[in-house]
Automatic annotation (TrEMBL):
Parts of the chain that traverse the membrane: 128-148
Gene Ontology MF term list: zinc ion binding
Stretch forming the signal peptide: none
Spans annotated as Disordered: 68-95
Protein name: NHL repeat containing protein
Keywords from the UniProt entry: Membrane, Transmembrane, Transmembrane helix
Organism, scientific name: Adineta ricciae
Listed InterPro entries: 6-blade_b-propeller_TolB-like, TRIM-NHL_E3_ligases
Gene3D superfamilies reported for this sequence: 2.40.10.500, TolB, C-terminal domain
Amino acid sequence: MERDYSFVRVQKIRRSSLTSASKSNVGSVRMNSRDRLFKFNNENQKYRYRIDSNNQLASSFSKRESQRIRPLANPCKPQLGSAKQSTEYKKNSRRHDLFSSKIDIPSRNNSKKTNWNSQCTRRRCCCLLAALLLFQLLAGMITAMTIMGMQLKNQTTYGSTQRAQHQQHKQQQQVHHRVHQVQAVRLLQAARQQVQAVRLLQAARQQVQAVRLLQAARQQRPVHQLQQHLILVRNYLRWNQTGTIVAGTTLAGSTANQLNEPYCLYIDSNDILYVCDYLNHRIQKWLPNATNGTTIAGSSTGLLGSSSLLLYQPFDLTFDVNGYLYVADSGNARVQRFPPNSLNGTSVAGTGFLSSALNGLNHPTAIIVDNNLNLFVLDEGNTRLMKWLPNATNGSVMIDANDLNSVFDFVFAPGSSNQVYLSDNGASKVRLWTFSSSTEDGYLQIVNASTTTITSPRGLAYDPYGNLYVADTLNDRIVMFCGNSTVGTVVAKYTTGVPTVSGPSGVAFDSNLNLYVSNLYSDNVVAFARL
């Protein structure tokens, strides 16, 4: 197959250096894509020649000139003389594998060709080896830098972790120290409180022991010492045993100067005497040194009834702070209130009929009105103590005791608002009772008379010194209990031939501490002057 040569102009080729065969081709030389171009220096002249695919020079050279031929600096890219030749060479080189052809030194000697090929191979290997070594070096450097970076990062992370742990440990120590301080303060406070509590408990125990010792001493005190104490009190509080009739006569009647079984009595701050004329169904008023009484509630002639103007067997009376009169209208099962200077009463407790409901009463025998206008009623038929608030329709039960037999009167214990003394007429006792309790707290007795028990007590009263006086009805005497003592002494008793105590039912004192007693058997009120 004929080769496809392209024509390349050869510049300044000396004809004398070419063979006869090549001289005919001067001016144009045919070259295909496999040919190589070389140059040699001849008298500072650069020449370009063609080497065919068989590594033979296309033109004839002298031996001297052929030895002067050397390959281009880059045999794979020979440098061409003109731009046209360079462009044509690049076109042909695209279709040719530069490394697939063997390049030999352009010489007619085969040994020189072999040396040239080996040199190129060695150069190529050296380049590849250098590139490989450079690549390995770069890879090693990159690996080393990566390892160093990882180590540095690990060291940084480890250092940060150590610092964080150290900081956390330090904070924990600080918190522990603070907690320890707080706990120490709390323990100290608790210890102080405990010491104070122990001291208070010891002081309380000492006080309790002292009180118990005092109580034991009082309880163990001989009876004669107590009697001596009572004698001293009696020597200070004594009354003339011969009395004076200040209301009524010795006979029962319904006239203005008579009484018919007077039960309770009341003396105000002006020493005016008020008497419940039980069987005359009226309330009588006696001025000091008066001989006749005045009717202030009920019928003056002794008529009974259930209207607002009449009463039926009144048992007790009292006044409130506003001057209103309250009457325990036992026969009508109600409590009537009368304005000052009025005979027309109004029911404030009870319905007018016997009843055990909260709005009803059954034979009320005693009443008390406190400073707050609370009304306390002793409901003898129902054996209970009731309380009515101002303007209330129903009352509330303060004491409900089935073992009470026939209670007649009551008074509040000194300095107490929920303890009362009750005169139990049927059981012949004076009981001390607490509100909302189902059992009594104690009872009173006497020890300085032949009859050591109270028989059928009725009226109760206090003097300004806090001593309690009891009307011992069936024994015809008045018994005094000093303070909170449970034993009493007789201060007034029945005497023949003179106005005296005869079936006493009520007790009261005037401003001079004179003793007034209402007698059921003699139908009068007798006053005993204080000595």
